[in-house]
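Progress report, Aim 2. The chain analyzed during this reporting quarter is listed below.
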Amino acid sequence: MAEVKQAARPLSPHLQIYRWSWTMAMSIAHRATGVALYAGTVLIAAWLVAAASGPAAFDTAQWIAGSLLGRLVLFLYSFVLLHHMMGGLRHFVWDMGHGYDPQTRMNMAKYSIVASGGLTLLVWLVAYAVR
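Predicted structure tokens for the chain:
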């Protein structure tokens, strides 16, 4: 019986071959923020359940949310929400057929962090101002 020769197949690219880039990092960050939004949404649902459960449960939930750790979690949740939104807008621009040249892709990835950080600070400053 004759031996069958297998054709040399190319190896799949992986992280050891690709050079780390902003767009790669933001793609991973977009997925991570999506997962983090699930956890934050569970916390919001728990707060709503506490509000519906009566004054004692709501006071406890408000005390937790008002603590230093609770405010840090809320701040990070708002950053994650806005960062995920900026990533979604970046993908929307790509879906419209724009922003594919390398420099624009890199700039959009870099500025999505700047925009989400700035928007987070703006939201918190406005929230404290109207409080």
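The chain has a mean pLDDT of 91. The two ends are 84 Å apart (CA to CA). These observations will guide the mutagenesis work planned for the next reporting period.
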